[in-house]
Amino acid sequence: MINNTKNYISRELEAKIKPFLSRKEVLAIVGARQVGKTTFLQHLFDGLQKTRKKSAFLTFEKEKDLALFENIEDFKDYYDGYDVILIDEFHYAKDGGKKLKYLFDTTKTKFIVSGSSSLELTFSTGKYLVGRMVKFTLNPFSFREFLLAKDEKLAELLNLKFKDILEKFNLKMAFGEELNLRLEKYLEEYILFGGYPAVVLSKTQNEKKKVIESILENYLLRDIKALLNLKTQTELLKMATFLASQIGNLLNYRELANVSGFSYKTVLEHLAVLEQTFTLNLLKPFYRNRRTELVKTPKVFFTDTGFRNYLLSDFKPLEQRNDAGSLVENFVFSQIARRELKTNFWRTKSKAEVDFVLEKNSEIIPIEVKYSKIASPGKSFFSFVEKFSPKQGYFLSRGLPNVKRIKQTEIFFAPLYYL
């Protein structure tokens, strides 16, 4: 639900983190800048304020909060008796992991911290807190969170009828034409401009573009440049722009090195940092036979399609684009990735391909994605079904919902926005 007094939009992470709030482990919430970590922590704090737990909310962007933590004994004495302490921007603390371990071992206080880079927070802090810290990632708004901000009633209906189509898909619950049209319109806005909260809440397209520009240039590129110790971000921008043009495609490392001017080794280092700063993801192939299937070369997807479109200076409607298929494939990946299921793609050396293969409860689930309204997923998908005999598979497109069976495999046909 939306809390109108504080403009808070419920995040899916709330349900995942709830069971851990009563446990002793340190909770680390990581994610790119501007995805709403401070707002999320504040929401957790507001909830704690309604209980009998004595809690405090700090941010290490404030010099006084950070200065007190620098003298860990003073910090410990000052907050003696507190049940929960939430610390935003924890990565600003020097030797933060070591000090947090000391507090964990010597007090009964529960700590919840946030940081903008998994490199800074997980590596430098986590190495001291092995077995003592649980990490959660806060992403830009999912499509359902986006929909909650745009049309609360429609979001409620979608969650009521299709809470998770990978768990349960009931054809009889399908929406009629008008609601489908509304959902498709919202889906297009989400794919074009992405899910960063400040972008979603902006009113006009020009405002959305300026906000994306600000987040990209003032936060993301600056952070990555600092992490990589780059003198300029020119080569990094070239590399990111090339990657933006390659979403859904096999990554060509040699071509990427040529375009950016980086060595092969440097390209790998930059890709690792782009992943660890929540800019993009490299999806590895699924295989059972090394002789006939790809085993190494990944595909690239952006965490947020709004960033991707900004890098290419292209916000045209999907109907006017040559890359609409790649964008909806990126959309599906970004929604699936939040489910924390093992996800790959399948491609044979003869170029038969299935967009995504999920592994869930020891079962494999193929998913094919198309932007068009065509009714069939194509030969490659059926080839996968024939070869591996999965219990179920999905074909996501703009077409109407349906269910078909091929031998023992049940194939669910669903509109993209039901995901």
UniProtKB/TrEMBL annotation:
Taxonomic lineage is: Bacteria, Candidatus Gribaldobacteria
Q: Which InterPro entries match?
A: AAA_14, DUF4143, P-loop_NTPase
Q: Start and end of every AAA domain?
A: 24-147
Question: Which residues are in the DUF4143 domain?
Answer: 222-372
- SUPFAM superfamilies, per database record: P-loop containing nucleoside triphosphate hydrolases
- Which organism's genome codes for this protein? bacterium (Candidatus Gribaldobacteria) CG10_big_fil_rev_8_21_14_0_10_41_12
Q: What is this protein called?
A: AAA+ ATPase domain-containing protein
Q: Please give the PANTHER family that the UniProt record associates with this protein.
A: AAA+ ATPASE DOMAIN-CONTAINING PROTEIN, CONSERVED PROTEIN
- Residues annotated as transmembrane: none
Q: Which domain of life is it from?
A: Bacteria
